[in-house]
Task: inverse folding
């Protein structure tokens, strides 16, 4: 059997080595247009920032390594320019010489990835405008920075790569501005969870222009629909488009956005042609709707699954849930599954909890609280998404939530998880368990929530009681307009100040103490509502506005 793989990075390289382990006799060829295979796309921003100092470290495996260790023939700088599926023949351009040659295949795997979008803006071709996909892009940007010592940079697009690059350019001493068309950074987050990230990034000296579109790139500046921003260099990071012109030219079916349509075995519409990675349409794990999720984990898994099927083993891809994590200086931002806005547009009747808890026992030194949001389907009670913004310990909580979700866990199942605990690592009641406890209280009706975006609409005419139960020291930094302060320790003594015939809207720092108070008042016959996420979340969102 002769197997050809087009594209030798995440999906392609994984498929090739898996195939070799499954079939010692097959001839396996990787054809890669670029000069490197199996390189660390995800590490590229950290080379620019100087955390990764050796260029060699960006390459996980070399063509020689593939030959020596796996008996795989890797041809870099060999671009496939056409596919004839009838004859099962490829035409290849050896880029160094311009020589064109043909290669036959029995099975073909496409892993061509996705290329950065370069919108047709005036000035897009200036030499100080960059995109970041591969090692040559990285070296071009690195050389530009070393030669020109830019003082200012504009990152256009505030997705994961844009934010990572904003951090790494700041680490180089460059004054960075992010221009983002949406009203918040990091699209998988909801705006409420993004507000902490915005406030933190601004405190790091990065300017944010949200809801702003770049209209042109001029000499030393970027023009937006609102103003001019100084820019000695510009990184365009406004998304990617699947590189599927080659696939389409040989009749492989694609969707309206150009992503290759595959079945659950990663087989395309054309016999003997498989496809994986950023170029394919996948099934969303939660909605089961077709989508595009361009991440390294899914690309690697799909590569392995395609290899299994090519080698004659039955293997199925069950969909992508979009688990993603991002370092923003010392902050960690992670998400999985659907955001609230995605759940809404999918027509799912959902509910949500917010918590704000320490990553380990509060008496153990260190540890900054993390803000967690967990979303579940009200009908099935299954977890459909989660977002965490914090510092240490975010990654493990998100991985637990992503795992629980993958195995069809209900939000109340989080209460049952027995997670590792010793004071330096966690708490006997882990933040993940507590998200489950809060959800259980909501589902069983023990607590009723209201949200930050309900606050403005609450009547200030005395028809409801608005009570902030924090201590006077805590309220000194600010209170929501119209709320009165009755510290939680005084509640039982000051019940006469709270009319029993009016709904009570409580607020505390994070929603935890007000939950306790709501249980006291509910037990006494009051109709109580608890501000989810508390004043902390509310004020973070207001500060961001
Ligand atoms: P790619 O890895 O893009 O490989 C496709 C290859 O195919 C390319 O090298 C291309 O040259 C080659 N090719 C295309 N057409 C042809 C042709 N006709 N002939 C020959 N060769 C061809 N994901 C995460 O999960 N976490 C991260 O932290 C993360 N960080 C990232 C940071 C950056 C800067 C970038 C660019 C991506 C990051 N990603 C991250 C995304 C992740 O790298 C991709 O999801 C993954 O690499 C996709 O794998 P792939 O095999 O589909 O495509």
Result:
């Amino acid at each position: 059997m002769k197997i050809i793989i087009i594209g030798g990075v995440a999906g392609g390289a994984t498929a090739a080595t898996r195939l070799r382990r499954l079939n010692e006799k097959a001839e396996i060829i990787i054809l890669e247009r670029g000069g490197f295979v199996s390189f660390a796309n995800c590490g590229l921003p950290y080379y620019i920032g100087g955390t990764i100092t050796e260029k060699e470290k960006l390459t996980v495996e070399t063509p020689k390594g593939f030959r020596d260790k796996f008996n795989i023939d890797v041809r870099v700088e060999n671009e496939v320019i056409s596919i004839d599926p009838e004859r099962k023949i490829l035409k290849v351009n050896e880029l160094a010489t311009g020589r064109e040659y043909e290669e036959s295949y029995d099975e073909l795997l496409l892993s061509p990835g996705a290329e950065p979008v370069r919108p047709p803006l005036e000035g897009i071709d200036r030499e100080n405008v960059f995109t970041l996909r591969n090692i040559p892009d990285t070296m071009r940007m690195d050389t530009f920075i070393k030669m020109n010592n830019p003082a200012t940079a504009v990152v256009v697009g505030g997705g994961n790569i844009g934010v990572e690059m904003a951090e790494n350019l700041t680490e180089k001493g460059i004054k960075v501005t992010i221009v983002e068309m949406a009203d918040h950074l990091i699209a998988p987050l909801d705006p409420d969870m993004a507000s902490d990230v915005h406030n933190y990034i601004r405190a790091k000296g990065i300017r944010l222009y949200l809801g702003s579109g770049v209209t042109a790139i001029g000499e030393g500046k970027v023009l937006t629909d609102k103003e001019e921003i100084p820019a000695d260099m510009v990184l365009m990071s406004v998304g990617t488009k699947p590189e599927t012109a080659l696939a389409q030219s040989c009749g492989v079916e694609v969707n309206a956005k150009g992503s290759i349509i595959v079945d659950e075995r990663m087989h395309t519409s054309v016999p003997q042609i498989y496809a994986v990675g950023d170029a394919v349409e996948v099934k969303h794990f939660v909605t089961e709707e077709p989508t595009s999720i361009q991440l390294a984990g899914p690309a690697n898994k799909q590569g392995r699954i395609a290899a299994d099927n090519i080698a004659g083993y039955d293997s199925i891809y069950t969909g992508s849930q979009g688990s993603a994590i991002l370092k923003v200086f010392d902050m960690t931002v992670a998400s999985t599954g659907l955001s609230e806005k995605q759940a809404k547009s999918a027509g799912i009747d959902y509910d949500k909890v917010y918590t704000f808890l320490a990553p380990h026992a509060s008496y153990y030194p260190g540890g900054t609280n993390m803000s967690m949001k967990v979303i579940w389907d009200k009908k099935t009670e299954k977890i459909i998404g989660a977002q965490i913004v914090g510092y240490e310990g975010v990654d493990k909580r998100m991985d637990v939530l992503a795992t629980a979700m993958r195995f069809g866990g209900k939000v109340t199942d989080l209460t049952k998880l027995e997670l590792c605990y010793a004071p330096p690592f966690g708490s006997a009641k882990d933040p993940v368990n507590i998200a489950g406890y809060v959800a259980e209280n909501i589902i069983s009706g023990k607590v009723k929530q209201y949200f930050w975006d309900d606050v403005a609409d609450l009547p200030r005419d005395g028809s409801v009681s608005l009570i902030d139960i924090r201590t006077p020291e805590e309220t000194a930094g600010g209170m929501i307009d119209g709320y009165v302060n009755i510290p939680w320790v005084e509640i039982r003594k000051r019940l006469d100040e709270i009319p029993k015939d009016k709904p009570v809207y409580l607020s505390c720092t994070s929603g935890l103490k007000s939950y306790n108070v709501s249980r006291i008042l509910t037990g006494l016959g009051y109709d109580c509502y608890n501000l989810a996420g508390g004043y902390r979340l509310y004020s973070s969102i207001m500060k961001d506005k």
Residues 370 and 390 are 4 Å apart (CA to CA). The radius of gyration is 27 Å. The mean pLDDT is 97.
